[in-house]
Amino acid sequence: MPVKIRLQRHGKKGKPFYWIVAADSRSKRDGKFLEKLGIYNPNTNPATIELNVDNSVQWLQNGAQPTDTARAILSYRGVLLKHHLLGGLRKGALTEEQVEEKFNAWVEEKAKSVAAKVSGLDKVKADARAAALKAEKEVSEKRAIAAAEAALPEAPEVVEGDIEVTEAATEEVSALDAAVAEVKAEEAPAAKEAPAAEEVKEEAAPAASSEEE
Fold it and tell me: Which H or E element spans position 39?
């Protein structure tokens, strides 16, 4: 019975996740399977992969053929590497200790690279969050300035009626000033003639005194 290691789709529409299964190649993609080997969730960043490495290696040793996507996942988790190392063990090129040592060293290095990628993604997210907060702060400041400007009292508008009233008041003041000036002009000659009459009286008084003598 030909066996394939492939993906079986699950999840919602638009957000699928997959089971990694060993199944008869003649069965439907999402039909019956022989064994569930792990899960693959591409909706996370990085993608979530959980896999039973030893069972996957066993199926490969029994002749199971992975699909292209399943092969990439098996390679990512080190299944193909361990299958290759165990082939060297069967040929006598490696010991079990060497196989485990090489595989564990690869797993450790892989974990470091994944951790570095996650750290980089976290930094990108933090930078994006900081940029968003800065932009939001600038928008808030602009809104506050606009609100303060809107709260300032507006200069009163001068309408045409106000201009006419002002011109009429100016004309009335000018007329009053002219009348006052005219009255002052009429009073000025009378004030000048008053001393002359007093002088006549003073001159008449000595003349009268001389007649009495």
Answer: strand 35-41
